[in-house]
Design the sequence.
């Protein structure tokens, strides 16, 4: 890299200061390229060592005066060694005698005196560039460490939010069981067994933040089965799940609080009961999940921002960085709807299945063409 940089710069400087002979254009240009290669090699040999020394001893820059004094003194050996390389590779040429001058201390001193200012300027440029490179490396390393820290913090907060849902869900379900303990002990016992099975499913889940939608829907169905034991015929459910949405990824325990909220503010507060409908669809790379329910009298008194909804909004903010939304509406027909919009992220299993299906279809097509 150093050789390429200095060679390109040396060619440009040569074209600026050394006019080409129009009568012998090709030979003069070739001579310029050779001279540029010699000067580029002189600078390129010392560029990596300077970068190494800066990286190795930049920690001593706390004493700035001594540090920069040492680098300033380093200009003398740089100029001396550079001139020695130029003298060794390209001896001075005597235009009168039309021959190269013998290498000597006198010719080396003349070479140093003729170009020491330019060479010191180049030395300073290399030293400054090396320090700028070390500074950028440090900034990049700090940004990487900051990013890792933020990722760890977000993961910790997400885990905290996820753990917050379990006692909240458990408390509300146990409260429902307690209401049946005196009036219908048999149903309360069945609910406890159903709850233990549901908790086992919850504990068996891995720690991944995102799971396929079909797994989340399976958990919600089991939860609604538990609530049906409590409300009986007062609770009816309806499902409209698009087939292409089953393998898409959603956060764990993202739908259960929505369904629980619908029961608490809808069916539980209405004497006639009501219904819950869950609809999923995809449009333009977005997954939409809509939970609708008949609303009870408590909806007007509720601000719609309980523990469950606040938890969902916080998790969406951490997981999707503003690329997901949660919207609640309440129509004149007393139907409450919560719409969850997420990026349509496909799980690896679903992606692999789609690839296999595509290959099967291709094979079937090839087979049919062969038969034809």
Sequence:
């Amino acid at each position: 890299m150093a050789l390429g940089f200095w060679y390109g710069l040396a060619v440009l400087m040569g074209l600026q200061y050394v006019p080409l002979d129009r009568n012998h254009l090709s030979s003069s240009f070739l001579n310029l390229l050779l001279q540029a290669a010699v000067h580029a090699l002189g600078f390129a040999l010392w560029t990596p060592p300077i970068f190494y020394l800066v990286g190795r001893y930049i920690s001593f820059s706390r004493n700035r005066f001594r540090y920069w004094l040492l680098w300033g003194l380093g200009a003398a050996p740089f100029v001396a060694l550079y001139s020695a390389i130029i003298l060794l590779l390209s001896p001075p040429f005597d235009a009168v005698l039309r021959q190269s001058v013998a290498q000597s201390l006198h010719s080396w001193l003349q070479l140093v005196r003729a170009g020491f200012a330019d060479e010191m300027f180049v030395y300073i440029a290399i030293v400054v560039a090396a320090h700028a490179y070390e500074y950028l490396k440090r900034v990049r390393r700090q940004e990487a460490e900051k990013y890792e820290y933020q990722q760890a913090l977000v993961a910790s907060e997400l885990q905290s939010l996820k753990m917050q849902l379990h006692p909240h869900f458990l408390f509300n379900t146990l409260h429902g069981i307690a209401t049946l303990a005196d009036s219908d002990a048999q149903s309360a016992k069945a609910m406890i067994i159903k709850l233990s099975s549901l908790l086992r499913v919850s504990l068996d889940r891995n720690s991944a933040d995102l799971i396929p939608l079909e797994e989340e829907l399976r958990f919600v169905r089991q939860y609604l089965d538990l609530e049906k034991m409590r409300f009986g015929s007062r609770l009816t459910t309806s499902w409209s799940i698009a087939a292409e949405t089953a393998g898409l990824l959603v956060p764990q325990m993202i739908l259960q609080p929505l369904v629980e909220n619908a029961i608490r503010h809808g069916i539980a507060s209405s004497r006639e009961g009501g219904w819950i409908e869950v609809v999923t669809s995809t449009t333009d790379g977005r997954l939409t999940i809509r939970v609708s329910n008949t609303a009870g009298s408590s909806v007007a008194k509720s601000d719609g921002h309980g523990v469950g909804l606040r938890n969902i909004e916080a998790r969406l903010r951490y997981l999707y960085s503003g690329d997901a939304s949660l919207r609640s509406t309440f129509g004149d027909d007393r139907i409450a709807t919560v719409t969850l919009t997420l990026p349509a992220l496909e799980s690896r299993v679903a992606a692999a299945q789609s690839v296999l299906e595509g290959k099967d279809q291709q094979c079937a097509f090839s087979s049919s063409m062969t038969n034809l």
